[in-house]
Amino acid sequence: MFSNEEVVFRQIDEHTWVGSGNVMWHESLFLVEGNDKAILIDAGTNIKDLDKIVSSITKKPVTLVATHVHPDHTGASINCFSQIYINPGDTVLIPTYMGDYKGQVKYLQDGETFDLGGRQLEVVFTPGHTPGSTTFIDKNAGYGFSGDSFGTGLLLLSVDFSTFIATCEKICALMEADKIGYLYPGHFNENNVETSDKIKDMLSLSRDVLSGKINGGPNPDNSFGLKLSVEGDGYRIIYNESAIK
């Protein structure tokens, strides 16, 4: 649908597109269109004229929302938009990662729904990666958009395991009740959607870490200031000792 040196937008289905940025590994933006309005989920790191790019794909008015406040999701590109919706849990991250934003910050509410006209997105708070990580669910389509809530193969856990366990329990119950088949992650490569089976596995592993049944080892490269690491089935969780409480 659109391609330049900074981003490539591809169509997922008739009214949904994914944009792949090139700064942070497959940083993903999702454009979700209804009959009357559209939502852009995340804005990447620094994509020039992102608003104009989006308007070349949809003519509907676009609202920007964020899965969480990190620079590969709420980077300089957010200044293309006059307002952004975030989870209030991530307000603490604004000075570090959104300090130069010139627009209005508005706050999401857990369980609220964005009505796009013939299409709805439900807001589901899923803290773990950050205190304000958020997933957006399209119940009718049977999928959602989870940002980095479950890590896309590597979960950076910035809160405690108890919080993340509650998140996994919450999202698994929702996916089962509403027949949600999968979630598009924040670093989508066309072959790594998040399933309830994967999240259930993360839940089981997290319970074992919290109970002491499994002990994490050193994070091999001490990446992101997180010192401990535990391996799951095709993924890794990195965390600090303070997460075990």
Give a summary of the structure in a few sentences.
The chain has 245 residues and is α+β, with helices and mostly antiparallel strands.
What does this protein look like?
- There is one protein chain.
- The chain has 245 residues and is of the alpha+beta class.
- It has a single domain (2-243), classed as Metallo-beta-lactamase, Chain A.
- The protein has four helices and 17 strands.
- It has helices at residues 50-57, 94-97, 161-177, 196-211, and strands spanning 2-3, 7-13, 16-21, 28-33, 38-41, 62-65, 83-86, 104-107, 113-115, 120-125, 134-138, 143-147, 154-156, 182-185, 217-218, 228-231, 236-239.
- The strands form four sheets. It has a six-stranded mixed β-sheet with strand order 1-2-3-4-5-6, with helices on one face.
- The longest helix has 17 residues, at 161-177.
- The chain is globular.
Short key terms for the protein model shown above:
245 residues; alpha+beta; Metallo-beta-lactamase, Chain A; 6-stranded mixed β-sheet; 5-stranded mixed β-sheet; 4 helices; 18% helix; globular
